[in-house]
Amino acid sequence: MRQSTASPPVTAFAEWRDYFALLKPRVMTLVVFTAFCAMIAAPGTLHPFIAFTGILCIAVAAGASGALNQWYEADIDALMKRTAKRPLPAGKMAAGEALAFGIALSVGSVAIMGVALNWVAAFWLAVSVLFYVLVYTVWLKRRTPQNIVIGGAAGAFPVICGWAAVTGDTPLLAWILFGIIFLWTPPHFWALALFMEADYSKAGVPMLPVTHGLRHTRIQILLYSLLLVPVTIAPAVLGLTGWAYGGTAVTLGIIFIALAIKVWRNTATLAADMAPEKQLFKFSLLYLACLFGALVADRLLLP
User: Which of 7, 49, 62, 147 can pair with 28 through a Cys bridge, CB separation 3.0 to 4.6 Å?
Assistant: First the structure.
């Protein structure tokens, strides 16, 4: 695994803020939250300190994935307005520092998860890091517009880790939660890609709007939204959760599909006119957080 181009000259010593930025903290927050919800929803209990250790390992592994992603993609990050100020393209850190930082955090988080909790959770944590770095970042992102579809698994594995941390296994409900995040990822990121299409095109990243056009992307967003909502309702239908969760899933799903339809009907080609896309992108973050929050509430309401 290597970077495709050399990093720019380092003009200053890296600060703690630069290392923190490597972790992609905004992305990490949602990953950690869904994993935490899975831990609470899983049958069984953990000592609070052990549970905190498990969540910390998942957070560190997610951050390590972000650091390795930025190490590999420093060249294209430099070409995109959204990412040009990251530590590597901005010349605030040497590539070797970012690589060593990411590897150390990856190995450390997996090892501690295995020793402190169990090796099933540690295995899936390792899979999540390797999938994000090798499958998504190295193999898919620069080669296929299906990068987000297949790469969505990387963001879904942490819920498996969270569940396995408590129970040591991965039952059907855990994999349904995996499926929810997997199907949620394409409409979430493609909504972003629509109004960031010019950036991706400039960087040569084959995101769906770049390779297949805006109209096709809007159709795919609607189709994946229609696939997503039934999967979110499935736990209640199968009796794996109560209808406190199920009712929330139905309500949120109706709103999600309504917003996806607005995106599908939009014909704008300029980012400034893509209000429906921006609305769906923002709501999709709230949607996933509320859905997993409802899962926790449902678990706590069960006798």
Answer: 62
